[in-house]
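Pasting as-is:
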Amino acid sequence: MLEVDNLVSGYGEVQILRGTSLRLEKGKLTTLVGSNGVGKSTLLRTVMGLLRPWQGTITFQGQDLTRQSAHARAKAGLVLVPEGRQLFTDMTVLENLEMGAFPPRSQGHFQENLDRVFALFPRLAERPHQKAGSLSGGEQQMVAVSRGLMAQPDVLIIDELSLGLSPILALTLFESLIELKRHGLTMLLVEQNVAMALGVSDYAYVLSQGRVTLEGQSRQLRENDEIRRTYMGM
């Protein structure tokens, strides 16, 4: 679905990514883990077209997107749920979801997609006319994920799903990823909760200093002594 090959990127003259490569398989949940500052968000911003790569290629469903604009990537079906949610806080839950349904590919499926996200997150179905800014942090994250789903993505990229959430709300959101995977959605998850991320994903990459230093089946990486010691406190 998505292939990133030897990506080099950064800000100004500061290089962050140093030849990063990864692949997403159709219908699989892939996770990208690593410490703060190693380039995870830079990778996502480059993949989404918010940063122009210095070198390397980004291929999506066989199409070279390396020089395509951010809106062209979203139109093609590549959708980002950004870190920090970035909701329209003065707008209602429903209005935020309507903004997610803006791409032409999703406009003919609005009610179908709305029913799907309300089934996934019943809390949102109970408060469609409540302002997004008045929701709890966990509910706001549900809106952010749902807004991404309203765009009818082929690949959904989620940056820091559980950031700032209580363990029980984080668990609810991770369970929603399992449900989405069950329905065949291809996803890339960037997440600091390494134990949970490896628990729900199929394949994982470890990023360190702008490079992938380890990759493999998630269940195997969960048993890796270095991963357990460095990222899981075990």
